[in-house]
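Ticket #264: bound-state structure for D-malate.
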Amino acid sequence: MKLTINNANLYVEEQGQGTPVILLHGFPLDHQMWKLQIEALSSAYRVIAPDLRGMGQSDVPDSNISLDQYADDVLALMDKLNIQKAALGGFSMGGYIAFSLLRKAPERFSALVLANTRPEADGQDGRKNRLNMAVSLYDKGPAAARDVMLPKLLTEQTRQSDPQLVDELNTVMGSMPAEGLIHASLAMAFRGDSVDLLSSIAVPTLVIVGEEDPITPPSVMKKMADQIKGSSYHVLPAASHLTPLEQPEAFNTLLLDFLKNTNI
Ligand code: MLT
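RESOLUTION: The complex was predicted; output attached.
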């Protein structure tokens, strides 16, 4: 469905009934990256997976936007759907937004899932890469992000053995609005650091990383998990960055067990 949130039309996938679970996607993707989690969770939970502003079927921002503003959209979406409190899952860029949400409104979240993400802000090189990406998106369209990201999202082994998944990702990433991706790149380039937030996270937290993730490697995620009190940290073998789609069974087992054993 489409909902008007903070003066923009945002696409929101909503399935199932019960305790709300909000899933925030990564870059340059949309809610479809969660399709196997939506399928697995929606018999027991109310699963909500929006397309962030400027990605998927949601309106492209008409001026520059920060990660905190993406987070404001999520809070406004919760208000619109009468959700006082939810379990929150963030993948990569979605994780950066989850940090912002926990800073802004920790009382509205009962549990946290951090998949393939990192708390640190970009260093100088990272920021420069994102500015170059923005230029490249202007020049070449969404293929610029797709071509850089695809080899990092899946292991070489999966890219060879699962051409259908590769095709699906090529289609999703290749149909993103270039301007929306430019806004997202700039927002990530200038995001704040969330390392200080970690020790204040007071909800049960599940941390998942792919063993071969080159973007948010296990060493980075272990260090992050160690700073979140009581968090549970898991490395998925034979997985790169896009763990929810590359190892959906292992991912869903962890997710379902976590939600079942957590008072959400
Ligand atoms: C993502 O998957 O959302 C991106 O890899 C995040 C990033 O580039 O930092």
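RESOLUTION NOTES: Residues 2-121+193-261 form a domain with the Rossmann fold fold (CATH 3.40.50.1820).
TICKET STATUS: resolved
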